[in-house]
Design a protein that fits this description.
The chain has a two-stranded antiparallel ribbon. Helix 2 packs antiparallel against helix 3. It contains seven helices and two strands, in the order αβααβαααα. It has a domain of 90 residues. The protein is mainly alpha-helical. The longest helix has 76 residues.
Length: 272
């Protein structure tokens, strides 16, 4: 006999479920064993211990020279970047300067291992290399400028050489013309200085002056009279002037013959 529904007797048969029907009876949760993880240490304590183990408590901030070197490197990078951009250079420059300020400020707060003697030596060598590089760059700029000036000077010299050739031709032609004019002038002066003397008579005297005087003066007085006439002629003033004129003319002629065409243009005559 089946039990009446609603009695407190449990049923010995399980209720069959229809497909797709959910069970309305609550299910008891499974008891799972929860493994407790070991408690983790604080992060700060771990990093502190790690830093102590690595000796980071002895680290010091970056030196001023390192910050200056970093700033110089960033400035060079900014200049190179601005050279690549053709537009909006002003805004790019402002943005890069802001980034540079942040980077340098962050690096200034960093702590690094203290520099040893070798590090100081390396830093000194690096600064020297940087200074030498800057000097080398300035030297290259100066050298390029000097090479440009030298090229300009060579071009100017070539132009001067080209201008010199026609000037030399003009000078040579003027010199030849001057020599020709001087030669013509010397010839004209020589022609002006020629002494024109009357040619001697062509007829021959049959009798001498002494014979003529002897024939005109009777007796033996001819010789004495001739001597007296000679003395008179020698002592007369016109005859002395004539003799002085002839002497001066001879000296003038000798001077012309001795000097030739290359001599002075004028010959001073002696005063009478």
């Amino acid at each position: 006999m089946k039990p009446v529904r609603g009695s407190s007797r449990p049923s010995n048969m399980k209720m069959q479920k229809k497909p797709g029907e959910k069970s309305s009876a609550p299910q008891e949760p499974r008891k799972e064993t929860v493994r407790q993880k070991p408690s983790q240490k604080k992060k700060g304590g771990t990093s502190s211990n790690k830093s102590k183990s690595n000796g980071q408590e002895k680290w010091v901030p970056l030196t001023r020279l390192s910050i200056i070197g970093l700033k110089s490197i960033v400035d060079q990078s900014i200049l190179k970047t601005l050279g690549l951009n053709r537009r909006e250079k002003e805004e790019t420059n402002k943005h890069l300067n802001i980034l540079k300020t942040r980077l340098v400020g962050a690096c200034a707060e960093l702590r690094v291992p203290p520099l040893t003697r070798g590090d100081f030596e390396t830093e000194r060598i690096a600064s020297q290399l940087q200074e030498e590089g800057r000097r080398s760059l300035n030297g290259k700029k100066t050298l390029s400028r000097l090479e440009s000036d030298l090229d300009n000077l060579l071009v100017a010299l070539e132009e001067m050489e080209e201008e010199k050739k026609p000037l030399e031709k003009s000078c040579s032609s003027l010199k030849g013309q001057l020599e020709e004019d001087k030669a013509v002038e010397m010839l004209q002066m020589a022609e002006r200085c020629v002494l024109h003397i009357r040619a001697p008579p062509t007829h021959k005297y049959t009798t001498t002056l002494q014979a003529q005087l002897s024939s005109t003066v009777p007796g033996g007085e001819g010789e004495g009279m001739a001597r007296r006439l000679g003395d008179i002629l020698l002592t007369s003033a016109p005859l002395q002037d004539a003799r002085l004129l002839l002497a001066n003319a001879g000296q003038f002629t000798d001077g012309l013959l001795s000097t030739g065409p290359s001599g002075s243009d004028s010959v001073d005559l002696p005063q009478t």
